[in-house]
Amino acid sequence: MEKYSGTVLRVGLAIVMLWFGSQQLMDPDLWLSFLPSWTSSLPISQTTFVLLNGWFEVAAGLLLLVGLYTRIMALLLALHLLGIVFSVGYTAIAVRDFGLTVALFSIFLHGQSAYSLDERLSKSILPTQ
Asked: How many C-beta atoms lie closer than 10 Å to residue 69's C-beta?
């Protein structure tokens, strides 16, 4: 069972990131109210900010789902969510995102898991004995 725990966590978090990212891409205006006030001073519109965030979450979520560059994607997503935690302050969103951050950091620490492209590529690159 332990062999699959990393895979279950990786796939579950990838689905969460894909859901949030795709929702931002489908209806960015719905997400504007979640943005901290400092985003209004950026050189891009808040809608563009949401769309860029959505594309990042979808791309990173897809790579996490298939297990390619797992450690890098998990760390980037963890740092991304940690930034959101500090931006939104002590709210229900921040507490949820903190939990997701810790889970993503756990994937970063664990590295590749069963049923990932990282694992498959490492087996094909390393000589068999």
From this structure: 17
Contact 17, 57 (CB under 8 A): yes
Sequential DSSP letters for 48-90: HHHHHHHHHHHHHHHHHHHTSSHHHHHHHHHHHHHHHHHHH-S
The DSSP secondary-structure symbol of 33 reads G
Nearest to 16 by CA among 79, 74, 83, 69: 74
Cα separations in angstroms, 35 against 4, 49, 51, 72, 78: 36, 9, 12, 25, 18
Q: Residue 23 in 3-state DSSP?
A: helix
Per-residue pLDDT reduced to its tens digit, 60-78: 999 999 999 999 999 999 9
Q: pTM score, two decimals?
A: 0.87
The residue type at 90: Y
